[in-house]
Amino acid sequence: MQQNHSVTEFILLGLTQDPMRQKMVFVIFFIFYVGTVIGNWLIIVTLKSSQTLGSPMYFFLFYLSLVDFCFSTSITPRLIVDSLSATKVISYNECMTQVFALHFFGCMEVFVLIHMSLDRYVAICKPLRYPTIMRRQVCTILIVLAWIGSFIHSIAQIILALRLPFCGPNLIDHYCCDLQPLLKLACMDTYVINLLMVSNSGAICSTGFVILIISYIVILHSLRNHSAKGRKKALSTCTSHIIVVIISFGPCIFIYTRPPTTFPMDKMVAVFYTIGTPFLNPLIYTLRNAEVKNAMRKLWHIKITSESK
């Protein structure tokens, strides 16, 4: 495929140009990334090893943790390394790969969260039919559809990015490659491409958010008919999901559902959903979920006991 540009590499300006702040960026996001890797892999290993966490909710939680790990890994290591580099150079091919990964795993997270809300809706609103509706085959099909949908979305984004001609300059005012900052460098009228981006990424974020909010409103409304104990347990689970939805979709909607304008807080908002959300999700799902915490304790107790023998 012939590339319609003269730029072969880009220079990322990162979060800051100040040397002292760059060192702070390195320390802060190194800690964030280590916490993200440990937290999500703890959940993944626990859910794979536990015999008691086999419900559809934990089936989807496994994939949410896997996606969060991949999502963070596609962005954060580069940011950490660049914070110690004098020139933050990224090749054209690497940049396009990062655009694909960013949208693929970001879209996958949207679909998994929708599946998790569907699972809670069936469990709370149709408990008698729950084992039939949310059987393992159905859950597997939903995850496969999520992978396919995310791939289609990412292909659409990368096609838009590949159509952009870059003649210079090559300074990306961001810490990663995404369509929004790339549009500012294209030597063409980007109105139509921005419109397509908003109708794609923006529509997925907005539609997903509306679906999730409506589903949880219905779920919370139906809890009136449950016992106090059942209501408390359902509220605990749903509250965790609602917190994740808000911190995931708020920044995403802010970035992808507006005209091609930039604001000073754009990079910090992007940090929140590309790096903050994968770090916070394990904390939210473990600290607020007694079953996951108990399974983790049993798993590591067995591991420590077996190693001490």
Automatic annotation (TrEMBL):
Q: Which Pfam families match?
A: 7tm_4
**Membrane topology (UniProt):** Multi-pass membrane protein
Q: Which GO terms describe its molecular function?
A: G protein-coupled receptor activity; olfactory receptor activity
Provide this UniProt record's keywords sorted from A to Z. Answer: Cell membrane, G-protein coupled receptor, Membrane, Olfaction, Receptor, Sensory transduction, Transducer, Transmembrane, Transmembrane helix
Q: Where in the cell is it found?
A: Cell membrane
Report which residue ranges the record marks as coiled coil.
none
List the protein's name: Olfactory receptor
